[in-house]
UniProtKB/TrEMBL annotation, chains A, B:
This is Phosphoribosyl-AMP cyclohydrolase. Keywords: Amino-acid biosynthesis, Cytoplasm, Histidine biosynthesis, Hydrolase, Magnesium, Metal-binding, Zinc. Homodimer. Binds 1 zinc ion per subunit. Binds 1 Mg(2+) ion per subunit. Its main location: cytoplasm.
Length: 118, 118
């Protein structure tokens, strides 16, 4: 998906960036397998970059920095669709991954069952 | 799933409750259809209640209150499995819903495409 800057601004205006560092929560799901790949945050700029470029951008709450997911690894996440939650402070980003989402090399960040960390 | 209080405490000790009000992010997914139903927060108490009772409990950051999901509506969410993310500050809760997750009556909180709110 690719939106014009006007549409992107309009979408951003409808969202409530009320989480950490003025963000919405972004749940990232593989559009095909429906596997949940990650959960992270998007500030207004990350949301606008995501929908205007078609590539997943996030706000890093630890590094206080906007980042293009896969910028260094090459594992870009192509955005296919976005869904909005009932109270407009979270988005579900459906992606077509060009590689693993997780920095560990695993396809999903949720690669362990709870019993594996006990 | 049902854990003993000892196992539940052990699991909680491995997690980093570092989000709003000392929580982990909880992504809730239907274990069968893989539909993402909601994203919310769990503090230590909500996590322990969830894994010891087998029913989804959350921490409401707006009401500053622990709640059993479905307590008033009857739409309890039965927990089937839990996955942990790479940095241990988010969990993916796989549930068998006894009814809609969303307070609007929709099955998922993510019931709208972005284009519907523009």
């Amino acid at each position: 998906m690719r939106l014009s800057i006007e549409e992107a601004e309009k979408l951003a205006n409808k969202l409530k960036f009320r989480h950490e560092d003025n963000t919405v929560i972004a749940v990232v799901q593989d559009y095909k397998t429906k596997e949940v790949l990650s959960v992270a945050f998007m500030n207004r700029e990350a949301l606008i970059k995501t929908v205007t470029t078609g590539y997943l951008h996030l706000w890093s709450t630890s590094r206080k920095k906007l980042w293009l997911k896969g910028e260094t690894s090459g594992n870009l996440q192509i955005v296919v669709d976005i869904k909005i939650d009932c109270d407009e402070d979270a988005v579900l980003v459906l992606v077509k991954p060009m590689g693993p989402m997780c920095h560990t090399g695993n396809f999903s960040c949720f690669y362990r069952r709870y019993s594996e960390i006990l």
